[in-house]
Amino acid sequence: MLTACQQHTQPIKPAALGLIGEDHLRERLLAIGAEETTIKYRKRALAHPDGMPCVIESAFAWCPEAQAQRIVTGVN
Q1: CA–CA separation, 22 vs 57, rounded Å?
Q2: Per-residue model confidence as pLDDT tens digits over 7-53
Q3: Angle at 12 between CA 47 and CA 58, to 5 degrees
Q4: Which helix (H) or strand (E) segment is 3 a member of?
Q5: Residues 6+ apart with CB under 8 A from 29
Q6: What 3-state DSSP class applies to 74?
């Protein structure tokens, strides 16, 4: 059945998965004390050779009041 479905459908494009978005990530960084001018955002829409789509978003910033390095991760 899986093979039949795959033969009669098109692979999903990575862009169809949606984004968390730069605005949201910027808001979250600012909420934890990030310096706005240091915020860097990148996104990549990819497809694995087997056809599995994915979107990777990242945002980084300097938090001048932070006492230690902090890494926050999430999966959508």
Answers
A1: 8
A2: 888 878 888 888 899 999 999 999 999 999 999 999 998 888 887 88
A3: 50
A4: helix 2-7
A5: 39, 59, 61
A6: coil
